[in-house]
């Protein structure tokens, strides 16, 4: 089977962008015959940005409940928390020792942080933790440990998959063919959803619409989406509208075409937002109910996660690490 891997960082409450961009397509893909799916809660990755333990814990629970509420079947897929698999940080170190530092210097996330420092007149590396610099190696370990073939990603992540290939290839070259080299699957048809302020919706920007916000909150947040000041009756540009971009992610092509026509006819922002609210609420209401029920039983979620990690370690992670330790000249732990 083809192995497909998807992770979500446990850095906050999951939002509409995570759902439309990752969760909804990943759950749909898991029902395709011949696909073996790996879903994980990226809590080691979260520590790069979030140093608030309560937030990481809460986010872990919320994201786990979200996957389950959206139809992930824990008996049919691999579902686990990254930090429950000690072989991941162990592999990270083995890969660190073959990874070119120059390659990491060129990683987008690190370069963006350096550019921001320069723009603010700071030293290049001011306030940048080494975790941010190393994150492509941790991500390579996430992927290579399970020999994942396909990693669905947005365009900005393609570089990181190429790095994982590069580190895997170097390791194979030095120590024998241990790793399958992964391929990025670019989700061209999956749009990046804008947040309330028009920037990319992101847990780090505080501009999100939480996926399972209670109905009145959902309505209030949608009402606060930034729009231009065109009045009802004035034609509106669908392609530059955040309201339209969100609508499109939740509507059928026919509904989207009808909304585009309504924009041209000059639908008022209040009416457009009401239609958006109704569309999103209709899609999410059943999952929201399951989510709330799951959140009331954290011990059950915890048991599912532990069981998933335990089975995955036995089936894949522990035997692979034993082979890798031997390959590089470390002692056999078994
Ligand atoms: P952070 O701010 O902590 O990086 P994030 O909310 O931007 O978090 P991640 O947890 O890094 O998101 O990403 C999880 C998945 O959700 C990825 O597959 C990513 O492509 C997808 N995703 C995140 N934000 C959006 C968005 N605004 N639109 C579409 N997909 C998104």
TrEMBL record:
E.C. numbers: 6.1.1.2
Compartment(s) of residence: Cytoplasm
Catalytic activity reported: tRNA(Trp) + L-tryptophan + ATP = L-tryptophyl-tRNA(Trp) + AMP + diphosphate + H(+)
Motif 'KMSKS' region per UniProt: ranges: 200-204
Positions annotated to bind ATP: 9-11, 17-18, 154-156, 193, 200-204
Residues at which L-tryptophan binds: 142
GO molecular function, one term: tryptophan-tRNA ligase activity
Keywords assigned by UniProt, alphabetized: Aminoacyl-tRNA synthetase, ATP-binding, Cytoplasm, Ligase, Nucleotide-binding, Protein biosynthesis
Transmembrane intervals: none
Motif ('HIGH' region): 10-18
Family: Belongs to the class-I aminoacyl-tRNA synthetase family.
Subunit field text: Homodimer.
Purpose: Catalyzes the attachment of tryptophan to tRNA(Trp).
Name of the molecule in the record: Tryptophan--tRNA ligase
Organism: Lysobacter koreensis
Shown residues in whole-protein numbering: 3 to 336 of 441
């Amino acid at each position: 089977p083809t192995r497909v891997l998807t992770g979500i960082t446990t850095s906050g409450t999951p939002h509409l962008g995570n759902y439309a961009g990752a969760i909804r397509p990943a759950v749909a893909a898991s029902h395709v015959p011949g696909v073996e799916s790996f879903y994980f809660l990226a809590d080691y990755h979260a520590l790069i940005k979030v140093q608030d333990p309560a937030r990481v814990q809460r986010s872990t629970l919320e994201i786990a409940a979200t996957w389950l509420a959206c139809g992930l079947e824990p008996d049919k897929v691999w579902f686990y928390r990254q930090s429950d698999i000690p072989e991941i940080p162990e592999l990270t170190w083995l890969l660190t020792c073959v990874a070119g530092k120059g390659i990491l210097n060129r990683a987008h996330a690190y370069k963006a942080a350096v550019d921001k420092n320069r723009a603010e007149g700071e030293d290049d590396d001011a306030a940048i933790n080494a975790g941010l610099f190393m994150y492509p190696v941790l991500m390579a370990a996430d992927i290579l440990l399970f020999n994942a073939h396909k990693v669905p990603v947005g365009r900005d992540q393609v570089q990181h998959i190429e790095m994982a290939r590069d580190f895997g290839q170097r390791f194979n070259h030095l120590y024998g063919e241990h790793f399958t080299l992964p391929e990025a699957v670019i989700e061209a048809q999956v749009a990046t959803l804008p947040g309330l302020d028009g920037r990319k919706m992101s847990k780090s920007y505080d501009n999100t619409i939480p996926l399972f916000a209670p109905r009145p909150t959902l309505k209030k947040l949608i009402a606060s989406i930034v729009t231009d000041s065109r009045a009802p009756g004035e034609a509106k540009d669908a392609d530059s509208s955040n309201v339209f971009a969100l609508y499109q992610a939740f509507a059928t092509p026919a509904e989207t075409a009808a909304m585009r026509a309504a924009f041209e006819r000059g639908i008022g922002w209040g009416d457009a937002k009401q239609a958006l609210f109704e569309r999103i609420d209709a899609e999410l209401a059943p999952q929201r109910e399951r989510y709330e029920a799951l959140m009331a039983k954290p011990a059950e979620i915890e048991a599912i996660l532990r069981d998933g990690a335990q089975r995955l370690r036995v089936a894949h992670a522990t035997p692979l690490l034993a082979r890798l330790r031997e390959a590089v000249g470390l002692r056999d732990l078994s």
